[in-house]
Design brief:
By secondary structure, the chain is α+β, with helices and mostly antiparallel strands. Helix content is 64%, strand content 9%.
Length: 350
């Protein structure tokens, strides 16, 4: 088989996974990043590629030339570049339609976005059998056979993904684990993605605490300006939000990025380091956070007075900067840098 065909296959495989990861970030701000969301996304990708593999083998048998595939891949590149803009056009309206009691309208928007994803998936799925046919030479119907085998394998992957996400995990694993660790009956518990919950919820709160961060990595869609704006809309006048953000010693790249994002939305943001090497608490709300804490300290239970006074004394203003957004939130890259620097310094446990 020609080396050029091997390289083309390698690049196509890389494109498939990169596009799938990028697609997960497109949908996370609107539907969350839970297991069912991932299962649905993976199934759409694999389903499109399965159909592409089946059709690609047949086309390869008829054409037998590389040039049509290269032209299709060029068109695919342009198509992929347009998908983020289409997602921002269709998906926010889908969320709004659900909240307003119009599920069919929401389904229509999601369906349109899914159809828009289909052409590049068909091309990517067709690459494998197409290249195999070219590499095998003039064997009769070799492309069709390879395409059928690839399609069958991919469909099996879809079934396994859906069974794990919608049957095995919730029925055999997650439900029993949740039952073992259940809260009192008077405590209201919602299991799901925090951002998706806020979009559905219409209530306002005196305080919203976001503790979805566990170093080293954090959910990117809970660090962006759009999410901060959602939190701000759910606060009562004078309310406060607190974000617990992971850090490593004095490595504050992620903390500073989240703090700058909060500062782009809230009038005042202050930070206080927990007395460990892995957490910083970011507080945001109306101006005068420290003063209000001092005024209200007397209303707290006596055993919390020392803690309130200590936090009041340690609160410090944060610096502004470029905020993270749904379109650009490289928190994983910032975390990778922290990990790399820690490993090169051989500092042991994180």
């Amino acid at each position: 088989m020609k080396p050029s065909l091997v390289w083309l296959s390698f690049l196509t495989g890389a494109t498939v996974m990169a596009a799938e990861m990028a697609a997960s970030r497109l949908v996370a701000p609107y539907f969350g990043s839970s297991t069912p969301v991932w299962a649905t996304l993976i199934s759409v990708v694999l389903g499109g590629m399965a159909l592409g593999a089946h059709l690609g083998g047949r086309v390869a048998d008829r054409l037998g030339r590389l040039e049509p595939l290269l032209a299709a891949l060029c068109a695919l590149a342009a198509h992929l570049a347009l998908l983020p803009f289409l997602a921002r056009l269709l998906l926010p309206g889908a969320t709004a339609a659900v909240l307003n009691g119009h599920p069919l309208a929401a389904l229509g928007r999601v369906g349109l976005f899914t159809l828009a994803m289909l052409p590049p998936l068909l091309v990517l799925g067709a690459v494998g059998p197409y290249l195999l046919r070219l590499g095998l030479g003039p064997l009769t119907a070799a492309g069709s056979r390879a395409g059928s085998l690839s399609a069958a394998s991919t469909v099996g992957s879809i079934v396994g993904t859906l069974l794990a996400a919608f049957a095995a995990l919730p029925l055999l694993g997650t439900a029993r684990a949740m039952a073992l660790f259940a809260l009192p009956a008077e405590v209201e518990v919602h299991v799901g993605d925090a951002r998706a919950f806020l979009v559905r919820d219409t209530r306002r709160y005196d305080a919203i605490i976001v503790d979805a961060f566990r170093f080293p990595y954090v959910p990117f869609h809970l660090t962006t300006r759009e999410f901060m704006e959602e939190v701000a809309e759910h606060l009562e006048p004078g309310g406060v939000t607190c974000f617990n953000v992971g850090r490593y010693r004095e490595e504050r790249a992620v903390v500073d990025a989240v703090a700058a994002t909060m500062a782009a939305v809230f009038p005042e943001v202050r930070a206080a380091d927990a007395r460990n090497r892995s957490n910083t608490l970011l507080y945001a709300g109306a101006p005068g956070l420290a003063a209000r804490l001092s005024e209200r300290a007397g209303t707290l239970p006596p055993h919390l007075h020392p803690l309130a006074l200590r936090v009041q004394g340690e609160l410090r203003p944060v610096l502004g900067g470029e905020p993270l957004t749904d379109d650009h939130a490289p928190v994983e890259l910032l975390t990778d840098g922290i990990l790399l620097r820690a490993l090169t310094r051989a500092e042991g446990r994180l």
